[in-house]
Automatic annotation (TrEMBL):
Domain Fungal lipase-type, first and last residues per copy: 170-281
Gene3D superfamilies the UniProt entry points to: alpha/beta hydrolase
Signal peptide boundaries: 1-19
InterPro entries hit by this protein: AB_hydrolase_fold (IPR029058), Fungal_lipase-type (IPR002921)
Single GO biological process annotation from the record: lipid metabolic process
Keywords, alphabetical: Signal
Name of the protein this chain belongs to: Fungal lipase-type domain-containing protein
Matching Pfam families: Lipase_3
Length: 350
């Protein structure tokens, strides 16, 4: 009896390993349905022997790495709308009393109505940073927009860079702890009550909710999308997320749970924007789809050269992290502006 059990176990192991080694599925769906196999971007491989996102992440070459997820067709990308949202990022860089604020908001949508600025303390490990989300009603595009800002000042940059390189995840949600903490602080610091009032107001029943953010704010904006979708305030067709220079958010399970309820997400990446290549690829962390990649920058030639990829970590839309790219020339200059920090001086004119 004991021998029989041992034999059965050996048989099961052998067939398991050979199935893993086999992995003869010729498409991503069938491949990912097989627990021992993973899609490497173009072929089905054993997850132990190469069925990983094979694009050079530090840790992603090891056991039980993430395979690529299967491609799905992206929704329609509206670049002009993305440019308007970027102008609202410019507005976020100054006090709401500054003439540049009104100038940038007016440039984005002359009929825009500013609702509220949620400006709270955040930061990990030290709660000494500011996290900011601005809320608008945009009649021009029939949207309610939440605009989450990138990091401000050196202390925040240092803490964010820590989060970007040591990507510890919140065990409950699967998001990088810094992003989750920032979201929690904003949500409990007024964002939830302001959004409840706006999104449940019948005047705006047919308005789409748009969550947009830059850098740290890009990751936070996806968590805002998730919260709005989880509340059921808007259905999948009436929620959009559009991010600029967004870092990796968190676990595969988290990405998938957001994608199920709010599939309209575009993640813009300006050429070699190093922040959007961080935190490093690893088995527990994944980027969000759909990447819109501008491989030669964002002047008029660059805009025409963009690539929209169909899955989270598509190699065609990924660049490897290089320290030399950490300068802000790509990260703060979406749509070819000089610098998001000072753009309000010209009323966010393109
Ligand atoms: C995936 O596997 C195929 C077939 O072995 C190989 O040609 C290709 O280079 C692999 N792709 C990656 C990204 O490793
Ligand atoms: C957020 O509040 C802090 C502290 O009051 C202030 O210094 C900072 O300028 C504010 N940020 C924005 C974007 O208004
Ligand atoms: C937004 O919240 C602030 C304080 O949390 C409140 O004063 C303001 O009235 C709210 N605005 C709306 C439109 O709900
Ligand atoms: C809904 O929005 C309209 C237009 O901004 C406003 O006049 C009205 O007071 C809001 N209703 C509620 C219940 O907040
Ligand atoms: C746009 O950027 C590309 C890549 O940097 C550069 O080669 C090209 O000369 C630029 N074109 C214009 C019109 O500025």
């Amino acid at each position: 009896m004991q021998q029989l059990t041992v034999a059965l176990i050996l048989l099961a192991l052998a067939s398991g390993v050979s199935a893993g080694l086999g992995c003869n599925h010729n498409n991503c769906q069938a491949c990912t349905a097989d627990p021992l196999c993973g899609w490497n971007g173009s072929a089905c491989k054993s997850r132990i022997l190469g069925g990983c996102r094979g694009d050079g992440g530090l840790i992603n070459g090891l056991l039980l790495c993430n395979p690529y997820q299967c491609s799905t067709a992206p929704p329609v990308y509206n670049e002009n709308f993305a440019k308007q949202l970027w102008q609202l990022q410019g507005a976020g860089k100054v006090a709401t009393s500054d003439p540049g604020f009104a100038g940038c908001v007016n440039a984005a949508d002359p009929s825009a109505k500013f609702i509220a600025r949620i400006n709270v303390t955040c930061g990990v490990p030290l709660p000494i940073d500011r996290c900011v989300t601005d809320l608008y009603v945009l009649p021009g595009s029939k949207t309610i927009a939440a605009i989450s800002l990138g990091s401000e000042g050196t202390s925040q940059l240092v803490q964010v860079l820590g989060a970007l390189t040591l990507s510890f995840l919140d065990l409950q949600t699967g998001a990088v702890i810094y992003w989750q903490t920032a979201f929690n602080s904003l949500w409990n610091g007024g964002l939830q009550s302001n959004l409840t009032a706006l999104l449940q107001n019948s005047t705006y029943a047919d308005y789409t909710f748009v969550s947009s953010g830059h850098s740290l704010g890009g990751a936070v904006s996806l968590l805002i999308t998730k919260a709005v979708a989880d509340k059921g305030w808007r259905g999948p067709d009436a929620i959009q997320t559009i991010t600029f220079g967004q870092p990796r958010l968190g676990s595969v399970a988290l990405q998938n749970s957001i994608y199920q309820k709010a599939p309209h997400h575009f993640r813009l990446k300006n050429a070699r924007d190093a922040i959007s290549s961080l935190p490093f690829q690893a088995a527990w962390i994944e980027h969000s789809k759909f990447p819109v990649y501008y491989p030669i920058g964002m002047n008029s030639t660059g805009l025409a050269a963009k690539i929209i990829c169909q899955t989270n970590e598509d190699p065609a839309c990924t660049t490897l992290f290089q320290v030399s790219d950490l300068g802000l020339n790509y990260h703060n200059t979406y749509f070819n502006i000089d610098n998001i920090e000072t753009w309000h001086n010209t009323n966010c004119a393109y």
